[in-house]
Amino acid sequence: MAKYLILIYGDEQQWDEMSAQEQRRIDDGHAAFVAKAGAGVIDGGALQPSTTATSLRAGSAGSPTVTDGPFLETKEALGGFYLLEAADLDEAISLAAQLPEVAAAHSGVEVRPVRDPG
Q: Is 116 contained in some domain?
């Protein structure tokens, strides 16, 4: 079994403006994803808004420069993730395709294999 990081991106303004009904639909979609993936879901979670991010970059004298905000400023922000174990990329994609953000016009999902340290 291989590990895959499922990254969920979207427009934070649209997330903030969702009705309670739409938020429940999204939450229900995630519950269905977790139920289908079962024990393959190792971890996951929603992230606080990108405005709460702190970024570190190479600084002078070997110490990092710390700044408020995300590393990159883009319209779509990283909003959540799952660490998933699947037989192969095809299975990981099949599971990730069920996430509600795949069908939303303002968001998307990235599936990225996790490197095996060995």
A: no
- 10 is a domain residue: yes
State the total domains in the chain: 1
Q: Model-level pTM? A: 0.86
Tell me which residue range forms the domain holding 72: 2-38+50-79+87-108
List the CATH number of the domain containing 16: 3.30.70.1060
Write out the DSSP string of the chain: -EEEEEEEEEEHHHHHT--HHHHHHHHHHHHHHHHHHGGGEEEEEEPPPGGG-EEEE--GGG--EEEES-SS--SEEEEEEEEEEESSHHHHHHHHTTSGGGTSTTEEEEEEEPPP--
What is the tens place of the pLDDT at every residue in 11-48? 998 988 999 999 999 999 999 999 999 999 999 999 99
Amino acid at 62: G
Give the model's pLDDT for residue 38: 96
